[in-house]
Amino acid sequence: MDTAGPVSVTDHAAERATLRSFRGGLCGCLTRRADASFELADTLVTGGALATAPPPHLSLEPAFRRGWGSTYGALRRGRIADEAMRDLLAAWRPADWPAVFAVDASSWPRCDAECSPERGYYHHPSRHSNGQPIVAGWNYSWIAGLNWQRDSWTAPLDVQRMHPTEDTGRATAAQVAALVGRLGTDGSVPLFVFDAGYDPIALSVDLADTRAQVLVRIRSDRVFATDQEARPTGARGRPRRHGQRFACADPASWPAPAAALTTSDARYGRVEVQAWSGLHPRLARRGRWAGEKQPPIVRGSVIRVAVEHLPKPTARALEDAVAVVVGARHARPRRLLAGLYPPLRHRAHAALRQAHLGLDHAPRPSARTGRPLDLARRRGVHPAPPRPRSRRRLPLALGAPARPRPAHPDPGPTGFSSTGAAPRHPGQSAETHQGGTGTVQGQSPRAGATLPGDQEGRLTVVKLQAKGLPRK
Predict the structure, then answer these.
(1) What is the pLDDT of residues 94-114, one digit of tens each?
(2) Domains along the chain with CATH numbers
(3) How far apart, in whole angstroms, are the C-alpha atoms of residue 146 and residue 155?
């Protein structure tokens, strides 16, 4: 109720009755510890405390009329009827809003909660772990209704936590199909908008029997193909499945668009929108289609949005936003373009000529081999700076002679070997030392040769230990 000046109770009697009815339905969705959970929800919505505040702090807010122990009871023992809550949110969706819904995933970091169940590794834009934007936590899939107004208000309709081993694409498609069933049939075909990272072809196959359209932002270097023309009579050979090549990054390969729109906007300047229908990608038998005998042909419409400038100045190069619409059998491109222009805001339908985010044109690694790749920075994969060579000795080839070891600073008494007389490799001569004479076998001692004093003393100790006599 946005008003200016004094407000009378009778002026907004209808709004108060609507709010009272919604609050009654919300209380009916709480099956255990309903009063404490309901007041806790009021505290988070109307109170001044943050949602991350400890439970005892939330109990001090005026909206919470119970003791601090009730906050723990509501969080630990409270229960919510999930399906009843989803039905309530779908029934109370703003009636004057269009049937346009945004689908995206968000991560709740739980890096230090090692005992939390069902944690996985997900991308997080602001928090890093070991230099990478990957955190351990929980992943939630959201569906929210969008408005034509240029503001941040959305209408959340469904949220679901994804299991780490669950197929995110199939789970999201099932979530969308369940919401379409709750919206009812009012004659309009709902449009679900996905950000980059979702597979539009897989979503189209999973939602083939669902009355919905899917708009997914794609990379600007994707390649599609047109339908093959009619084969002439009497032609031989295997018929072709794909027609002409359509490269999003090559304007020369674009045929005449099926629909086009050119206008001006105060924030974006000149806006140009083009749409091509009847395009399909060339699928291969890998990934999702690994077990298929022949990958399917999924047709859709490709939409290109180009603007003159962004609302805020930036030094980065601009790119045209490209999106693909699947399930276009329910609506024509002209009808879709009629509802595409009014928002023209960031992340509403497609990001308008966004700057390089590392998803479209990642810098290629250097052609030099033998250098590791640095993954710590966000801009993409690039060669790491050269490092000093490792001092670890490489293994010798089979049959190569062993390398001589460096001399030990204390070689011991002359004429004795510390490793025995076992030969090492063929071709190497093994010297046998005799402890009694201190001469090498095959050589005669020189006349009058004497040992130094320290070596002669060591030799005497060794002889005594060999005979078992005590040392003098």
Answers:
(1) 888 999 999 999 998 888 888
(2) 12-80 (no CATH), 82-227+242-338 (3.90.350)
(3) 7
